Automatic annotation (TrEMBL):
Keywords for this protein: Cytoplasm, Glycosyltransferase, Purine salvage, Transferase
Main EC class the enzyme belongs to: transferase
Pathway in which this enzyme or protein is active: Purine metabolism; AMP biosynthesis via salvage pathway; AMP from adenine: step 1/1
GO molecular function: adenine phosphoribosyltransferase activity
Protein's name in the database: Adenine phosphoribosyltransferase
Self-association state and partner proteins as the record states: Homodimer.
Enzyme Commission number(s) of this protein: 2.4.2.7
Listed SUPFAM superfamilies: PRTase-like
Cross-referenced HAMAP family: Aden_phosphoribosyltr
Listed GO CC annotations: cytosol
Example GO biological process: purine ribonucleoside salvage
Keyword Cytoplasm: yes
Family label: Belongs to the purine/pyrimidine phosphoribosyltransferase family.
Length: 181
């Protein structure tokens, strides 16, 4: 957890029973609307990665873009979007992963990375870990090396962060929520 984790956790809104009964949706919108909170959020990632050799921040469509682009800017490295299928205009590689009900596919431009590029993968939240692992697989298939996976929020009870670690990747989250919070 970051030095600002408790503060940012207090700003994140929990919407109970959305989008369906029994789900606690963690809404980052209040963080984005509060300039001090948004700065602390971006600084949490920048402080973590500023002394590491990072070639690119790869962020997952769409909320990952909100944090990935300013972090890449601050780290003076490239920003690479990992998009939902059919959204990228050039030659792509794709990775399909399982959802609770069905499948989803993410894509990456085939020329996004050079062999050995050091990449941080970012998204807003880690739940099951499916989209994050699909992104890491894409990056590795394209020649990149995943240095760490990062998110604003980890939901450890769902097991995604453990699943990502079992696949050999480091996980950083600014804050985490249990189901009862």
């Amino acid at each position: 957890m970051s030095i600002y984790g408790d503060y940012l956790k207090s700003v994140i809104r929990t919407v109970r029973d959305w989008p369906e009964p029994g789900i606690n949706f963690r809404d980052i919108t209040p963080v984005l609307q509060n300039s001090a909170a948004f700065r602390k959020l971006i600084d949490s990632f920048v402080h973590r990665y500023q002394e590491m050799e990072i070639d690119a921040v790869a962020a997952i469509d769409a909320r990952g873009f909100i944090i990935g682009a300013p972090v890449a800017y601050e780290l003076n490295c490239s920003f690479v979007p990992i998009r939902k299928k059919g959204k990228l205009p050039f030659q792509t590689i794709s990775e399909t992963y399982r959802l609770e009900y069905g499948e989803a596919t993410v894509e990456l431009h085939a020329d996004a990375f050079r062999e050995g590029d050091r990449i941080v993968v970012m998204d807003d939240l880690i739940a099951t870990g499916g989209s994050m692992l699909a992104a890491t697989n894409l990056i590795e298939r394209s020649g990149g090396r995943v240095i760490e996976t990062a998110a604003i929020i980890d939901l450890p009870e769902i097991g995604g962060s453990d699943r990502i670690r079992r696949e050999g990747h480091s996980v950083f989250a600014v804050c985490e929520f249990t189901e009862n919070e």
